[in-house]
Amino acid sequence: KLLVFLAFCSLTFANTWYISPFGSNSNSGTSPTSPFFDLSTALHHAAVGDTVRVASGYYSGSVNTYLTLSGISLIGTAGSGSTVFQGTSTSRVQYIFRLTDGSTIQGITVSTAETGLELKTSSTLRDVALKDMTTNGVLLANGATTVAMEKMTFSNCDDGISDIGSGSTLKTLSISGGLFEECGNGISITSSSASLTNITIADADFNGALESSTKAVYLYNQASSTTTVGYQIENSTIRNYDYGITGAGIYLSAAQAEANIVNCNFFNNSCSSGCGLYVDGNIDVYIGYTEFLDNLASSSGAALYASSDSTITLYKSVFKGNTVTGGGGGGAYLSSSSADVQFVVHDCEFISNSAASGGALYCPYQNVQIYGSAFRENTATNNGGAISTSTRTEITNSTFSKNTASLGGAFYVSSSSVEGVSISTSNFTANSAGQDGGAVYQASGTIQIKGCLLSSNVANDNGGGIYTESALNIIGGNITQNEATDGGGIYIDSYPSSVNMKFVTFEDNNASGNGGGFDCVDNAGVFLNYVSFSENAGAKGSAYYCNTCSVTSSKVNIDGNNEVDCKS
């Protein structure tokens, strides 16, 4: 009995206190009908673990701002839209509230200060609005290790959420439901030490519709290459950010990280490079079910820019209407210098993107794998209406239609990789080139094309379907109804490399000059095996035209309407 009595005596009970604009500090403050008038009085009575419940209304002055909550739960009974703690714009306080010892806030609006909330503790914030802050909406100070935010609103803050300049102890940050509007940076976590392990952002809307807005999300952590930081961003919208340099939407940089971006929308962001998403460092990035629409870059990668050793996987995502005015990669620019880094695309669409080179994708270094994807109506003023690549590239079960460029209406390759480029079971239709290579332009490297259709492509000069200056192997497939001045189907200028074709059909291609099916020049070597020519047209060599090149053929079928014209 004595033990039970002592245990009962040792229990402490949390108290609940009440404040109201219509209360009085002479009240008991212990019930809604007898509330205090201001928060300072309630905090004077409250102890760690207590709750202060706030009636709707406006609270201002030194008795309601620039206060420290020590282990207190502050709850607005009517929600953030009706309960406001406000400083003054003429003499801003350093912060409205400083939170320590596990304090939490719910259903409150905090307005007009340098910083809204300074967290020096792990904390949970729910239904909190932060407005008109010259520095931070929420500052994650030393001691803020695990922070959770739900249903947040940030407006007109220099930074919505940021960490301190040095010594940050932040480990995990989760945001579920949030509106960030007219903030310089929505979220800026740039100084966290090796303790950082996870940041999750879900159901958030970042709207940069303000001239001074820079980035929606800026996450920079190069502190440790031994700890893998996890970034999870889902069901969120990033829009209307305009920043003069890189990464207006989301900027990710880490020594070692994994990032999942799922069900997000990036649109109408503008900057120099990576205006939707900029990735730097050693990050394994997965992007799924996400749209990049109408982003604009002055230099490269309007929607996506990836550098360093980052690996990117795209799945069932859409890149549409993204534009680069001065460089490459209207949809994405991949600049990693490591040949071991992968860029993998599954079941994606690239529509109406434009750039100087690589209207949809510009891939100078990273290995590229594309499966089951569609490239439509992309444009490049120079080369590669859809794709421009200089590295190992594999394309499978994909379609390229109505893309345009000066060289290589759909695809431009200048790969020096030993493995070269492989294209299989894919269709190239109605692409066009202002000069050469209506569908494909091969400047160097090796291409293998297997089981593909090249149809209705047009080049104003040479190679309606393909223009090649290097080693080309075509196994199976149909080359039909393509048009050019010379080489209606293919124009071959590949010396000293050779072109090999097996089980290929040339049908109804047209050259106003030489070689309706193909035209080969300048000592190129061409080897034909089980190749057929029918209904092709050309001023000379309706089947094919050979000028100082060598053609070796076996099992070749040429119908009566076609002819061969070879000078060698």
Put simply, the count of helices is: 2
How much helicity do the residues have? under 10%
Strand fraction? over 45%
The beta-strand count equals: 58
Distance between the termini: 114 Å
GO cellular component, one term: extracellular region
Protein name: Right handed beta helix domain-containing protein
InterPro entries: Beta_helix (IPR039448), PbH1 (IPR006626), Pectin_lyas_fold (IPR012334), Pectin_lyase_fold/virulence (IPR011050), POMP_repeat (IPR003368)
Keywords: Cell outer membrane, Membrane, Secreted, Signal
A few lines on this structure:
The chain is mainly beta. It contains two helices and 58 strands. Strand 1 (16-19), helix 2 and strand 2 form a beta-alpha-beta unit.
Sum up the structure in keywords.
single chain, 568 residues, mainly beta, Pectate Lyase C-like, 47-stranded parallel sheet, 5-stranded parallel sheet, 2 helices, 58 strands, 3% helix, elongated, disordered N terminus, membrane
Written overview of the protein:
By secondary structure, this protein is mainly β. Among the domains are: 197-391; 393-567, 3 Solenoid (Pectate Lyase C-like), CATH 2.160.20. The strands form 4 sheets. The chain has a 47-stranded parallel β-sheet that branches. A 5-stranded parallel β-sheet has the order 30-34-38-42-45, with no helix packed on it. Residues 1-11 have low confidence and may be disordered.
Give the topology, please:
Elements: H1 2-10, E1 16-19, H2 39-45, E2 51-54, E3 57-60, E4 67-70, E5 73-76, E6 83-86, E7 95-100, E8 104-119, E9 123-140, E10 146-163, E11 172-181, E12 185-189, E13 198-207, E14 215-221, E15 229-234, E16 237-239, E17 250-262, E18 265-267, E19 270-273, E20 277-288, E21 291-293, E22 296-300, E23 304-306, E24 311-315, E25 318-320, E26 323-324, E27 332-334, E28 342-346, E29 349-351, E30 354-357, E31 361-363, E32 367-371, E33 374-376, E34 379-383, E35 387-389, E36 393-396, E37 399-401, E38 404-407, E39 411-414, E40 421-424, E41 427-429, E42 432-436, E43 440-444, E44 446-455, E45 458-459, E46 466-468, E47 471-480, E48 483-484, E49 490-492, E50 498-507, E51 510-514, E52 518-521, E53 525-534, E54 537-540, E55 544-547, E56 550-554, E57 557-558, E58 564-566
Parallel strand pairs: 1-2, 2-5, 3-6, 4-7, 5-8, 6-8, 7-8, 8-9, 9-10, 10-11, 10-12, 11-13, 12-14, 13-15, 13-16, 14-17, 15-17, 16-18, 17-20, 18-21, 19-22, 20-23, 20-24, 21-25, 22-26, 23-27, 24-28, 25-29, 27-31, 28-32, 29-33, 30-34, 31-35, 32-36, 33-37, 34-38, 35-39, 36-40, 37-41, 38-42, ...
